[in-house]
Amino acid sequence: MRDGLQAHCRACQAEHYRRRQEAGGLTVRARVPVPRGSERCPKCAEVKPHSEWVRDKGSSDGWASHCRDCRARRHRESCFQRRCGITEAERDAMIEAQGGVCVICLSARPEHVDHCHETGRVRGVLCFSCYAALGQLKDRPAAMRRAADYVEGNSWKPTLVAPGVYQLPS
Fold it and tell me: Per residue in 38-49, pLDDT tens?
């Protein structure tokens, strides 16, 4: 209208919108009253205070669309899917199949999904220490064997055979 107002009240306009959506086969989420200083999370359907939300300057109200817990859960799920190609349920099944321990040290709780950088195939779930050790040795089996020999007391001392040519111990 010329005065900047609509011809119908807000409740009538909302009812008209709902009917049009339902006629097209869509559903409209029921409006839930939310107290001042709170938001309703569409994922968990809970009304939570602003202290449990993340600020988002891009949104119209200044708050994120989901609560902190749901955002963290969604980020974790998408991270597993994006990085490893598995779901959290598949990771939990792998941990269960491993007996609930790291497959290398057999003592610590596994937390990190390990995969082959060449093929992308998931190898297992490791504890942080074993996962970091594999990363530091750059997934090279020869380096890992030399490290195991070193730890067992077999020092790695190459023999000079010719200028610039060394023979490795067997």
Answer: 999 999 989 999
Q: What domains can be seen in the chain, in order of their start residue?
A: 10-72 (3.30.60), 99-152 (3.40.1800.10)
The widest CA-to-CA distance across the chain, in whole angstroms, is: 96
Question: What is the pTM assigned to this prediction?
Answer: 0.57
Q: What is the DSSP string of 104-123?
A: TTSSSPP-EEEE-TTT--EE
Q: Would you place residue 24 in the very low, low, confident or very high pLDDT band (cuts 50, 70, 90)?
A: very high
Is the separation of the CB atoms in 38 and 49 below 8 Å? Answer: yes
Q: Which long-range contacts (CB under 8 A, 24 or more apart) does 80-85 make?
A: 80/113, 83/113, 83/115, 84/113, 84/115, 84/122, 85/120, 85/122
Q: Higher model confidence: residue 166 or residue 103?
A: 103
What pLDDT is attached to residue 162?
87
